[in-house]
Every structure is written in C-alpha cells, then in structure tokens.
Amino acid sequence: MSGFETALAGAVAVVGVSAVVLARGWPAPAGKHRAPHPSVRPGRPVEAMDKVAARCEVENRVTIHARTHVTRSFVCMDCLNPSTDPLNYDTTGS
Q1: Taking a C-beta distance cutoff of 8 angstroms, is the pair 52, 33 a contact?
Q2: 8 Å CB contact between 54 and 62
Q3: Which residues make Cβ contacts (< 8 Å) with residue 72, sequence separation at least 6?
C-alpha cells in the first residue's frame, strides 16, 4: 500500500467516526439522563380531591362537590361556589 492510499483510508475513517459521533450526540449534553429501567414503574396517580354528592346552596339542588386534600375546601363542581361542608356539622344536638 502506498502512502497516498494509507492517507486516504485514514481520512475516510476520520470522516466516518466523526459522522457517528455527531449523529449520536456524544458526549451527552449536561442534564440528559437515561430512561429508567422498565421494572421501575411510577406510582399510581393520587386523586387530589374527594368527590361527593351534596346540596348546593346556590343552585338549591344536589350536585357533585369536591373536597380538596390540601386546603379541605368544599366546592360545587357545577357553579364553583364554596358550600357548607357536611363533615363540619355539629351532630351532638347541643
């Protein structure tokens, strides 16, 4: 093999390796992580509200109400107005 053929083969190898490196994006940019292993599944989504049927004081009918877990507010899902929470009623009768 002559010097020209060796230089040509080296140049082709450098171009090929450079094309692969650019196509793969190697080295990986900062912050890019691999996907989690398939055996690691995320947990089920947690419902943020308890939904119950209660009487809406604004519409004067029974509608679906939601009680949030964080603020414990009780809101009608139809008119979005706050309602009296039935869990806060005094049941002792005094």
Answers
A1: no
A2: yes
A3: 85
* DSSP letter for each residue of 16-77: HHHHHHHHHTSSPPTT--PPPPTT--PPPPPPSEEEEEEEETTTTEEEEEEEETTT--EEET
pLDDT digits (tens, 9 = 90+) for 33-69: 666 666 656 666 666 678 888 888 888 899 998 888 7
Instruction: Give the type of residue at 35.
Output: A
Residue whose tokens read 């029974």: 62
Locate 11 and state its tokens: 């140049």
How far apart are alpha carbons 63 and 35 in whole angstroms?
Answer: 44
Whether the model pTM is above 0.85: no
Q: How many Å from the N-terminal Cα to the C-terminal Cα in the chain?
A: 107
